[in-house]
Predict the structure of Sodium:solute symporter family protein.
Amino acid sequence: MDQQSLVSLILILITFALYIGISVYNRAKVTSDFYVASRGIPPFWNGMAIGGDWMSAASFIGMAGTVMVLGYDGLAYIMGWTGGYLLLTFLLAPQLRKYGRFTVPEFIGDRFDSNPARLIAAIATIIISFTYIIGQLSGSGVVIGRLLNLPASTGVMIGVVVIAIYASLGGMKGVTWTQVAQYMILITAYIIPIVFLSLQISGNPLPWLTYGNVVNELGALDRELGLSEYFAPFEEGNKAQFLALLFTLMVGTAALPHVIVRFYTVTTMKAARWSGAWALLFIALLYLSAPAYAAFSRFVIMTEVVGSPIDNLPGWTEAWLNTGLLEIADSNGDGVLQWEELVIHQDIVVMATPEIANLGMFVVGLVAAGAMAAALSTAGGLLITISSSFAHDIYYRLMRPDATDGRRLQAGRIAIVLSTIAAGLVALDPPGVITQIIAWAFALAGGTFFPVLFLGVWWKRMNKQGAMAGMLGGLSVTLGYIFLSMAGITFFGIQDTGAGVFGVTANLILVIVVSLMTPPPEQRLQDEVTDLRYPEQMTYKDGQVWMNDNSDK
């Protein structure tokens, strides 16, 4: 093992010990600890935990590279994910928090007074979260394997062991405070390299203010080389795919069960809104940095690598050529590297930036620890969601309503361990690349849940028949389109990553048509929906709005 690998390994092991220590200290003792952290997380820290939950391996490693490779077209990811959080924060999260349940399936089951709807929602939640966690475990395997010179499969299994330990011990309470620590590590690791790179290129340490000038210079370089301009829209894809992907990511974000459940961990509707606001701020720190990463990295490659003699490239390129993530070919035989002779994998950008900026072994190791934090933080939230869907919604609410707290905790922990092992086995040979698998999870979440949650909160006429038809139809159409697209059959040029646009459309039509063709829900359920539109100090009942007795407390 070389010196760099040793430093990276030490930093990663220190962070692993920190995560497990936090989980042991915050070990869940009752079911409310395990599922919703006893609803006692302050909004600021919950916002930071949401940021950690959200920053997956794909966001940390892949987003900047996607923007660098795709240019304008890669912005669909940033716009979609950000827009989804706005939808969730303003239109769903406070209302779901006021309803006061533990999980998304529990909200759907009680809102429509239907155990079949609860079961469908629980199974769909497990499918969505399982799909998502395969991508996260694949990411952890790639990071560990690349940095420690181990097979990716070994890296996956290391990630499986760490996640299973801290998620099963701490439950939502432990995972929340672990995600806070993981956010601090990952955002530090993300920001430091780009600050130094900005300082080296522009003389200004604030990359968010300087990369615009670099983009202009890239445009001039592109024109000089006869390339399509970096910031020209729809040069790398078609407009339909761009819009479908943006829409899929937006509705998927607003409907992901492991994201929604984070809003159940605070005390009030107001705290839920503030959690969303803080989360947007913390997420923005990374999202606003990703285009800067893309611009600076492309600038360095175009000015310091392209045009250089192939036998005299910068030293940092050698290690990445060995990984296969950077490829060169002297196709015209002139001994000088041309842009067209260079193939750059999108995962290289963030991981290689510390070496490009010559920041030393500690920062390279810190970025490795940050990438692992990103993969583990999202995986922890996903495992809690899978666990609660099985142990709370299926085992407790449908099979054993008389189960004790101890039994429920035991069922939850067993579900975490088993689902981690199962996802790890699938992740050893993943069915797609990381960003593709995660996009499927967003498509499935949007196609199955978004219309049902949105109309379930804002349309009191919606009934259980409409909810079940919508979820089953949306899930089936989304899955069907993903398989069709993988087989080469697409409509309007929309790829599998944009499948959510078809699933949401089918879901919406089915919910409205079936609800209107079947009897309306009973008045009690309609009053509960109307009540969600009022602040917590007020209750809607029997056609009137009542002030709560403890509203002054």
User: Anything to note?
Assistant: Residues 3-23+43-428 form a domain with the Sodium/glucose cotransporter fold (CATH 1.20.1730.10). The longest helix spans residues 152-202. The chain has one domain: 3-23+43-428.
